[in-house]
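#lab-general

N.A. 3:47 PM
ok so I finally got the sequence cleaned up, no stray characters, all 901 residues accounted for. can someone with queue access submit it? mine expired

B.Y. 3:52 PM
send it over

N.A. 3:53 PM
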Amino acid sequence: MIKDTFTFLISILFLSQTLPTGAQGKLGLYRVNSDNTEQTLNDKDTINFGNSGVSSSILTRQIKVKNESTTESLRIYDIAFDATGIFGYFPASGEMTIAPGQIGNFYVYYMASGNINLHEGYLTFSTTDPDASSIKINTVVNKENGELKVSCADYPIVNGQLDLGDILIGERINFTIEMENVGEGYMFVDKTEFESDTNTFISTYIKKEGFSKGTTFNNNLSFKAMKKGTFETIIKNKLERGQTDVHNIKVIGNVLAPEAEISYEGKTLLADNIIKEDNAPYAVQHYTFNVKNKGNADLTINGVTVKQNEDREYNMSYSGSFKTIQPNASLDYTLELIPSSVGEKPVELTFHTTDAENSVIKIDFSTVIGAPIIRFEDKEGKEIAQNLGFDMKATTDNAVVMDEMYIKNIGNTVLSIKELKEVYDIYNQFSFDYNGGDIGVDDRQKVTFTYTPNGHNTSKNSFPIDITSNAHENNDIRFSVHTSHHYHETELRYEGNLVSESYPIDFGRFDINTGKEIVLFVKNSGNLPLTIQNVSFKNDSQDNFTIKEYTQTEVKAGENGKVVIQCHSTKAHQYVEEILKVETTDYKNPIQNVRLTANPVKSQFYMSNPENTITVWNGDIEEYGPLRYENEFEYIYIIQNKGEAPLTVKEISIENNDGYTLDFSGYELPFTLQPSGQKEITMKATPHLPGMYDSKVSITTDEPGANNFSYTVRMNSLLPVLQVTHNNEVIISENIDFASMDSYMFTLMNKGSEILDITSIEIEDNDEFTLSYDEAVNFLRPQETLEVTIYYTPTDQIRKDGKLTMKTNDLKAEVFSLILKERTITSTNNLNNNFSIYPNPAQDKLFIQGISQKVEVSIFDLFGVKHLDIISNGTVDISPLHSGIYLLQIEGKVTKKIIIQ
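B.Y. 4:20 PM
back already:
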């Protein structure tokens, strides 16, 4: 290792050949280039390692040593090199022999470090070539310097100078200087430094950087204008191996700034000022401050702070606004004083400007407002508010009273009272005594008042006085003096109104069921306690009114006693009147009379139809109907109150009967009808049995003397009633057993009072049963009958029940049914003459009675021609045959003669 900053890698590559002593050879030196080409190298030539800078790569240069002799060996010896340790050599000592036509090699090494200075070295050796017995090869690195070139796209750099132009104070400008190494060598550019004591520069280029050829760096700079006027700043970068030791750029410009000058009455103000103005009268005052911009940039006044006391008597124009003043221009600020009192008026003004050197200008301003001020006081010195006036001492029972008040000057100049004048006094109750004159500062003068009630019982009076003076604000005052008179007095009041014999208490119209109760208030309108001594009626024998109670304790001033009176007269619709006497401790009117009047009324129950053409009276019999199944009966009543008091219906009850059910709807009990009020109720009747029936309806009310009302509802029910009889016995739905019979006859009868509709008569589930009746009859009048016959003709051996069903309009027997029980026939061999054919003669159909299963039926004429051959269970359709005499044959065994019409 040569020095501690280099590492040498030595690679040995050469040919060595030992020759006899005295060998000479022919030396040829060649430098191997990076592309492996060779370049002749002469004695004292220099190998240049270039400008590698601080690259960490190891640089190697190869020197070929050729023995260009074809017969003699070449000997290399006495190898030596410089001792600086910058370069490394191989071989660095010893000797070597190169055979004819062969090649040996020298290697020179260099590794870059932080040292980029110029370094030179050499390699020497001796040879046996008599023409080149001593050879020296020089080495060099970092021979060339770098060259720093700067440029700025934002502001051109001319002759090393950058002009930022005009800049507003406080403004920040950002710009970039591009730095480039345009030289051949490697160099260092140190961090950016500034020479300036007025403004602020900031650079992003803050450490030393290495620049190889073509390397660029951006130096981003920020400039903030801090001081008004032209400026000059040097941007410095120290260079290593550059074209100079220090690279400078001069930055110039002009900082524009406002300059605030505030003057008052022509005098320029400083940063802190005290202004005391002369005394001023009690009026609005104005004071002007002039703000001028003496700078070369716009001046902004960022408001004016006004600091004052709670009265807030000062106003400053533009105090809450930002105002801009151009260079050499000015603006007036007006301070307005609106005094609300006399005395010193201090205020602190603070102008806020954008002048960096004069940003805050403070002014302590004051003046004195002078004026006389009037004030009213009692004799103890307590203030009497002008708008409230002066309250004199109270008097009792018409006594004369005197009191005093003072007029005081609380201003700071003399107060002159020019006139005191009473405005009005219609009963000549009020007077005053005042000498008048000037009142000095903090002095006062007395005014004496006299009040005589003169028999007028009013608790409060006010007497206005007009006062004229030279006072600042209240120079023409209307001042009121208030008096108070205490006295005894009783008032009788009902519902807030005074009452007497001339102004009676009217109980009005009221229901005699409830009566009416009122409260008469006995008001103590005086100032002393009051007692109600007695309450009575002028007519002791009257029975229309009763005194229920009255206050027997002491009634305080301003409060009420009471007398409770009840009217319970039973004289409905009659006017009644009595005189009530009230005795109190009122010394002027110990007995006061009040007239009482009343008009009792009662309710009256009235019931009718909605048209009011039919009235229902108590005990009436009302006939309705008739009732029928098909339309349920409904009737609407109107219950009215034809009286003059409310009517309450408490109960509606019904005594029902067996013929129909009666009910009412459309109300909820109890209900109350006001006078002339009415209620609609609905009566409904549901029939059950035919005939005429009665129901009693009872209505209970609170009508005095007539609280029980009743009437009778009479209705005729027209209803159909089905009765079925067999052998004169009534039958109901039951089983009919055909085990021993082929027919069954029963009778239908209408036992009701309305037509009985026969909707249908039919047999279901078994066609071995047939019906016979007059099918033209589809209704029965009351007491009419209809006979019906059921025929049984078995046709098979299966036993199956049939069902006869009749439908009518009898709602209690809409569907009447009989279960038909059949018997079983085991074989057609049992056929004999024990069957019958009906009807005979026949027209369209005939029936065979006595068979219980399907059989073959044939019909022949008298000439033996067969006209019909069918299988039948007892019914034969003969409508296709012509009139005449025929023979009917069953199963080819039994023959009967029939006639077809």
